[in-house]
Design brief:
216 residues, mainly alpha, 10 helices, 0% strand, flat
């Protein structure tokens, strides 16, 4: 059976698999080559160096995040959908969080994504300055929530709940929280949507005031 020819897309896909298993620090030319069962030197025909791989995997992750849907009557619905898509993708590739705003050579998917998000806000009447504030706030919330989820898996939460139960008399309020999170039907997604809605509602208030003043 003929080996599939090497390409930039295959190199980046392999780098993502490496990072999914070992984090971004696991990405190296040697490990990506091992993932592809090729010699490291062969990668240089498709990517010039490790930095190019890091830039490429960020762009590949942005490809996976759905753009805000067009045609929403309320800008909050479009941003809410985009935020949910971002959380879903980043929960599977949380290693990308430290890269997404640190790379200095954003790819076409990254630029297209940010442009689309800003477009939703500008079309809704956000001034340029308020749109910038909004994107920074929303993305900080998404990234922080994903990082928190990744740092505290469900198994750890159950163990923590058990430890709290052993000291319930001294920790009554934490006991209530532990019992709440252990109820059937509880989902961290509910917490995510609650916080996101608070942010979006606050931004809508600011947008309305700014529009009334005629801010550009």
């Amino acid at each position: 059976m003929a080996r599939e020819s090497l390409s930039r897309d295959r190199v980046l896909a392999a780098a993502i698999r490496v990072a999914d298993r070992g984090g971004v620090e696991a990405i190296s030319m040697r490990r990506v080559a091992q993932e592809l069962n090729v010699e490291a030197m062969s990668l240089y025909h498709h990517v010039p160096n490790k930095d190019a791989i890091l830039d490429g995997v960020v762009d590949a992750v942005f490809v996976l995040i759905d753009l805000p849907p067009a045609g929403c009557a309320d800008w909050r619905d479009a941003i809410r959908a985009r935020a949910g898509a971002a959380r879903e993708v980043l929960s599977h590739h949380s290693w990308a969080l430290g890269l997404m705003d640190s790379r200095r050579n954003p790819g076409p998917a990254t630029l297209r994504h940010h442009n689309a998000v800003l477009g939703v806000l500008r079309q809704a009447g956000f001034s340029v300055a308020l749109a910038v504030h909004a994107v920074s706030l929303i993305d900080s919330y998404i990234y922080g929530f994903v990082l928190q989820e990744a740092s505290l898996p469900a198994d750890d939460m159950q163990q923590m709940a058990g430890e709290i139960a052993e000291h319930a008399d001294a920790l009554p309020h934490l006991k209530e929280v532990a019992e709440h999170t252990q109820k059937a039907g509880y989902s961290p997604a509910d917490d995510f949507r609650f916080g996101l809605d608070l942010i979006l509602d606050a931004l809508e208030d600011r947008r309305s005031v700014a529009c009334a003043r005629g801010d550009d």
